[in-house]
Amino acid sequence: TSNFKNPNLCCLSSPTRLAHSVKVKAQESEVSVAVDAFTQFKHLLLPITDRNPYLSEGTRQAAATTAALAKKYGADITVVVIDDKSKESHPEHETQLGSIRWHLSEGGFQEFKLLEKLGEGSKPTAIIGEVADDLNLDLVVLSMEAIHSKHVDANLLAEFIPCPVLLLPL
Prior knowledge:
It comes from Chenopodium quinoa. The protein is an alpha/beta fold.
């Protein structure tokens, strides 16, 4: 006799184990396509949108990543410093430029192109897109911090940026 009140339920005398094993091997062509994608990036853009003269954690991470990618794949770097205020109203501007130089040189990168878009009144996302388009850049490296801090509008990235964007988590 059974203690079950529902006649549709069944009692198993021993536990049954179901196991499935699936092995998936990436196709070499798929892996090489992913690796080849980075070798195509010969000119990288590092936008600086924060006002921290010593660079925020996210910007430092983006600088280190940009330098590492450029060094590994033989790419050039362009840095664009974007601020809605003019250079004159930003007393620690030179300190910030020194920080940018230092962080890129720590990554083994001594030479890079520097653009300053200060006091122009345009949205940073539009400026990043304009620079990427004008210089025919291959990749923009940006920290999610720039989006979280509202310096860069994530909704406009796809509209204004004509090349891939590498968004780094915080």
